[in-house]
Amino acid sequence: MLVVRDVQPERTKAFLELMAGRRGHFRLESGHHGRLWLDLDPLFAQPSRIAPWVASLATALRPYTVAAVCGPLLGGAFLAQLVAHALGAEFCFTERVLPSESSDGLYRARYRLPPAFATRLRGQRIAMVDDVMSAGSALRGTYAELQTHGATPVVAGALLVLGSAGMEYFAERGVAVEAAARDDYDLWAPSDCPLCAAGVPVEDVAAPNP
User: Fold this and answer.
1) What is the structure's pLDDT at 44?
2) Sign of the alpha-carbon torsion through 64, 65, 71, 75
3) What is the pTM of this model?
4) Which of these, 32, 76, 167, 178, is most buried using a 10 Å CB contact count?
5) N- to C-terminal Cα distance for the chain?
């Protein structure tokens, strides 16, 4: 198992202060359960506040010489636009498609590349980015979709990487992971969740809005 070592804890603390967080028992998009939920919706409301972290991530991604930067809607796409501009690369995004029925299975969300991007990305080196990566569900889905269309994802990046689950997935596939900040994170499969065992009600934060 990869170990997340935050070499700049003050930087990570400053980034976390930009987001509202709640503690409880949450079912995440990946299907994993966690005790912390971060509200990322306001993160890009004031681009100047996150500019230092965007610049740091863009600097880390520059050596990979990518032709395009792809991010999953919503936050990942906002970030992809900013990073693509900084790198002088093209921008694209993927859209989340959730299964019609709820399930305790892991990684059931799929990500779809709009047809307008498909031919432009074929044979190109791509950087995938998301605002925060924990289990990496959105970036995993984006990775699979890009490969389906003949693109070559060479690096996954995030403003904040939480835990090691997402990093392990990409490390096994030879895809580098870059981050502006990193921190530890408690994440469990439903069958191993201590909050479930304690009878704490779970909130599904990945469900579409009614």
Assistant:
1) 86
2) positive
3) 0.88
4) 76
5) 38
